[in-house]
Amino acid sequence: MECCLSPHEKLLTNIAEGKENPLRSMPAHERAFKILDRVQNLTPKVDVQRGRLFTEIMKQTEGQPLVLRWAKAMMHVAKNIDIFIDEDELLVGRGGGHGRYGILHPELDGDFLDLAVKQLETRDVSPFIIEPDDADVIINEIAPFWKGKTFHEMLAKTLPEETLKMTYDPNDDQLSRYIVNETASFRSSLQWVHDYEKVLKIGFKGIKQIALDKLESLDPFSPVDNCEKKPFLTAITLICDAVVLWAKRYAELAGKMAGEESDPQRKAELEMIAEICTHVPENPARNFREAMQSQWFTQMFSRLEQKTGTIISNGRMDQYLYPFYQKDLEEGVLTDDQAIELFECMWVNMAQFIDLYLSPTGGAFNEGYAHWEAVTVGGQTPDGRDATNELTYLILQSKREFPLHYPDLAARLHARAPERYLWEVAETIKEGSGFPKLINDEEIIPLHLAKGASFEEIYDYAVSGCAEIRMPNRDTYTSGNAYINFATALEMVLYNGKTKLTGDEVIGLETGDPSQFTEWEQFLSAYLQQQTNHIKHAFIQQHTIINLRNKHFATPFGSAMHDLCMENCTDLHTPVIEGGINLGYFEFIGYATVVDSLAAIKKLVFEDKKLTLKEVIDAIHSNFEGKKDIQAMLKSTPCYGNNDPYADSIAQLLDRSAQEFTKKYSQELGVHLDLRLVPFTSHVPFGKVVSATPNGRLEYTPLSDGSSASHGADINGPTAVLMSNYASKNYGYRERAARLLNVKLTPNCVDGEEGTKKLVDFIKTLIDLKLWHIQFNIVNKDTLLAAQKNPEKYRNLIVRIAGYSAYFCDLSKDLQDDLIARTSHETI
């Protein structure tokens, strides 16, 4: 029986019993709690302003260069979007109305708008409120312009027939088949990190001046300069003016509010806000508070500009903010409590912006109001020294003390990380809300050196999105990539190119009647043919996507902060930018599900000959009804996640086969389109199209997630899970990207100082094995079951999902069950 609770569980229990949260009375947290109390449990509303204003200008500017149209539209948004300053706010700048809100990007979702208006309020997962008047605006003013113009519609028309049938439902191209699933149509860009340090150092006045100087130096007779570079640079000057205008509107409002304010403390705060917003982000920041406000304006305006996949990330906040923090501390104008208060004002502002997915596929991928505005701490300096500083520890302290799943905190690890840092990271993990996720320099740095990065660039990387990384000013690839359901590849072997769900339709390759296979090598060859065919169609998708996207999306604001875009006078969404590194990936969904299934077939059918393939296929076709003995036999075979060479060698083989394909064909796309295992929550909807599998999994239930073991299959402890990850990788290939690894521990096994030491040692093992990523749930199974039964009592229970944390009660029952089913390790 579990004998202790995590601090997060204890806090929820005490609150449920009517006890006061002790953090509320602490000066550093008091203000943020006041704001949080007003907004935390509100159902988000759809705010139509950005979508309406953006559409108005796009209607007026048809035929002009897209990047210039985008900048004009954003200037229109900056001038006209409603602004307001809420009670208690210290950092200002919003993209929508009061409370929790989502904004529209009709250039992306225009063909889904009608469907969304009908479904958003009633959908089971992550609902949104739409006011009737706003629904009318969507249906009558916004949607008609975008019908027939969206990227998704063009992609569906352009894909070759064989690829199309693996991508969309043949009866409705708004619905994915979850076989070879494109993701480029529900986000304008992959996850991204801006060069915030540039904004803090030179401001948008400085960036605009760079553009003006380049405009002045253009060749007046050059057709390229006139038709390509001039519109781009004009757009940059306009977008810089737009964000400055938007900030000064807030300065004017704050000044007006200060003149009407009777409370002297709030009056002084508003006067300071007015002064700060007059200065930044136009000019360089002069102190910590200005740096925080300038950074917030930058990330918030970026959210208005485009829908970045997994939201725009915050970069290395403990690095670029540290000089301002250090200076203000030395001058006695800032205390640690005041710094934490500003951070938490930013966190609660983030919590009010909810990333709105209108497409059914996008919503299914991102349950629980998913968010990934990663803040990166730790790591190394551009010259390879340890980068931890006092701001690193302050951000970790804020994360431990403030019960909110914003931001998504990521801690970089390396072999020389200070013991204090590892200890505080472990203590933060032990709180039990899933933070921070850990990213390992020891794999990432040499891998990216092999892909063309310099030491300085990769030492300075920031975590971005779920488990990926970005090098500001060197990364240039923004196209969303394919999520591939390799469990369907396995099913197509069993049903000779078909799946149980789709009946007689041949979707994959016809690799023959599997019951006639007499050797393991025949079955394995058939699977690898199906796997390769899936990847083939993912690459055809990506070729099409790369050549279409820059006709539909532009990002002058993002481009303004990127050195290579400014140097080449080209938008960030251009397929190839001179001097950049195009780092993309395709997703292996259902990794352990496929590995364990293949291991079971190899062992029971071809080696031990305890079953025939026909018996296996009959059992899975019946979903093991009346075949529980066969299901038990299948589950008893060697499984990935147990440091068992039998299963792990199969995992390595599949990994290698996929990397060999991308090694050969990525160069045709001009992209490092590498193998990745990071599913978000897509392993749940992907599982809903896959019938029972030979590892004993029941039909239409979730697949395994990321590089984690199948549900309940990892029985040899968490260190064995690490060893399987290590053994299944092909370190001789550079054609690999992130692997997401979930580990669930009981609070008892990390309790006390001894528990912290064990967790630190476990983290050191991850570092030594050069594994990319790990994240933890420290929670009792009984707590999850109780929350599922009595959600109101556990409304604020935070759990780790897939590169982000969310409230457990905001998740679908399928995903809740998926979390509950993960193995709870009781020892490390």
Account of the protein in words:
With 828 residues, the chain is of the alpha/beta class. The strands form 6 sheets. It has a 6-stranded mixed sheet with strand order 6-7-8-16-15-19. It has a 5-stranded mixed sheet with strand order 5-11-12-13-14. It has a two-stranded parallel ribbon with strand order 1-2. It contains 34 helices and 19 strands. The chain is globular, with a radius of gyration of 26 Å. The longest helix has 38 residues, at 223-260. It has a domain at 1-39 and 307-473 and 749-828: Anaerobic Ribonucleotide-triphosphate Reductase Large Chain, CATH 3.20.70.20.
Give descriptors for this structure.
globular; 6-stranded mixed sheet; 34 helices; 5-stranded mixed sheet; 828 residues; 51% helix; alpha/beta; single chain; Anaerobic Ribonucleotide-triphosphate Reductase Large Chain
Q: How would the blueprint of this fold be written?
A:
Layout: H1 7-16, H2 27-39, E1 45-47, H3 49-60, H4 66-80, E2 101-103, H5 106-109, H6 113-119, H7 132-146, H8 151-158, H9 161-167, E3 168-169, E4 172-176, E5 180-181, H10 196-217, H11 223-260, H12 264-279, H13 288-305, H14 317-320, H15 322-331, H16 336-352, H17 360-365, E6 375-378, H18 390-401, E7 409-413, H19 419-430, E8 437-440, H20 441-450, H21 455-459, E9 462-464, E10 468-470, E11 483-485, H22 486-494, H23 520-549, H24 556-560, H25 563-568, E12 583-589, H26 591-607, H27 613-621, H28 628-635, H29 645-669, E13 672-677, H30 683-687, H31 718-727, E14 736-739, E15 742-745, H32 752-769, E16 773-778, H33 781-789, E17 798-800, E18 805-807, H34 813-821, E19 824-825
Helix pairs in contact: 2-16, 3-4, 3-7, 4-11, 8-23, 10-11, 10-13, 11-12, 13-16, 18-19, 19-32, 22-23, 23-29, 26-29, 31-32, 33-34
